[in-house]
Amino acid sequence: MKFHHVFHTYSAKTPYQFEALRDVNLTLQEGTITAIVGHTGSGKSTLVQHLNALLVPTEGTLKVAGITIEAKKTPKAVKQLRQYAGLVFQFPEYQLFEETVEHDVMFGPLNFGCTKEDAKKRAHEALTRVGLDASFYARSPFELSGGERRRVAIAGILAIQPKVLVLDEPTAGLDPQGAKAMMKLFSQLHQQGMTILLVTHDMELVYEYATHVVVMKEGRVLTHVPTSTFFETPIEGYDLRLPPLVRVIQALKKKGIHVPYERVKDVTALVNYLKDIQRWPA
Asked: What is the mean pLDDT of residues 244-265?
């Protein structure tokens, strides 16, 4: 997934013209969990919507799954792109439209050529993975809570079995337990070979789950590095808040206690690591 001098301008040549992407050059590697971070309006969502040609560049080109997407042209292989990169929107109601949850999740597989029987099987498997049982199948997605609608939207994308899963604020609307369960699922999918792109404001999710970080500001990519490298360098210049655990690790470093970021992803792991190095008694 390569962006080459990509620009994207909304409402060009009108009083509302806005340049959302500015000369983006970026290579996103398969097999990673890449977090895309930055403040509202930095271009995060616009960037990922180019991956399956929901948006196309105003200028520049990008290559996804061997398909070149040129400026101002919708590629002929758009169906292939949308099966390769499945996008879950920030607001799940944007992608829910069928009368029942089951039919909504079946829609993607049917659209990509599955038989009705196979589509139903995929839908049920995907709903189970996101924690929704058979009691949800006949319900209207519009009668569900915000968190349940988000689960249905995620299931709808999982059912098409994409190679790349693009998640725009995936834990919004979920309680802490639900958010943890979702992130555990995404981590498992990554371990099974799926590439995950995570658009988020939550730096704790970035620290705990991401393998790489892309920082965006005003439509530009400021940096793209492994997560451990990212948190080892000052990030205040990006106007991002450090997770509490990272602040603790940095405070320990100032006292001469080095804690490797890649080994310590939660408080329990930190305590166990400190015990292992015998800085404190067990």
From this structure: 88
Q: Specify the number of domains making up the chain.
A: 2
The three-state secondary structure class of 37 is strand
Angstrom distance (rounded) from CA 210 to CA 229:
12
**Tokens describing residue 278:** 């015998």
Same domain (yes/no): 251, 194:
no
Over residues 5-34, mean pLDDT: 95
Structural domain of residue 278, as residue ranges?
Answer: 243-282
Question: Closest Cα to residue 89, out of 2, 182, 3, 199?
Answer: 199
SS (H, E, C) 207-254: HHHCCEEEEEECCEEEEEEEHHHHHHCCCHHHCCCCCHHHHHHHHHHH
Q: Are 78 and 16 in contact (CB under 8 A)?
A: no
Give the other-Cβ count within 10 Å of 93's Cβ.
13
Residues with Cβ within 8 Å of 75's Cβ and at least 6 positions away in sequence, in order, are: 53, 56, 67, 68, 69, 81
